[in-house]
Every structure is written in structure tokens, then in C-alpha cells.
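ok so I'm stuck.
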Amino acid sequence: MQQNVLRSVQSDTETTLEDLKFRIQEYRSLSSEQLTINLGWFKRNVKPLADSLTIKLNLNSDNPYSNLLGLPAVNLVG
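replied:
not stuck anymore, here's the structure
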């Protein structure tokens, strides 16, 4: 099961359990509000460049909206 979880982590390098634990701790300090602010920055600054290069960006909302592993989430639906 541990290997299945580690394989599901989106990364360009192999992820170890220690890496995953570190990432989870790193993101616990963020709130849903801060993630929403960060998303707004991304949409204002990165999306226009992607559009000009005809690169399509897609964000998938949590369904249902939830804070997995105690981490913050952004509610894109509501």
C-alpha cells in the first residue's frame, strides 16, 4: 500500500516516504484562504502567459471538497 501511495505523488523524481512526510508538514502551515490567494495570483500572472502560448491549463476541484490528511484545500466549486 505504501508503494501505491508513493507512486500516486505527482513529481518528476521518485518520492520517498520521508519526502512525502516533509511535504505534508510543509503545507500544513498554509490555510485554505492562503491557497485561494495563491490561486488568484496564479490566475492573474501565469494564465495570461499560458493563453498567449496557446497552452491550456486545467484545475480539478476536490469532489467532494475536503481537507485530506489535514491539509488545506481550495473550494473551486462554491
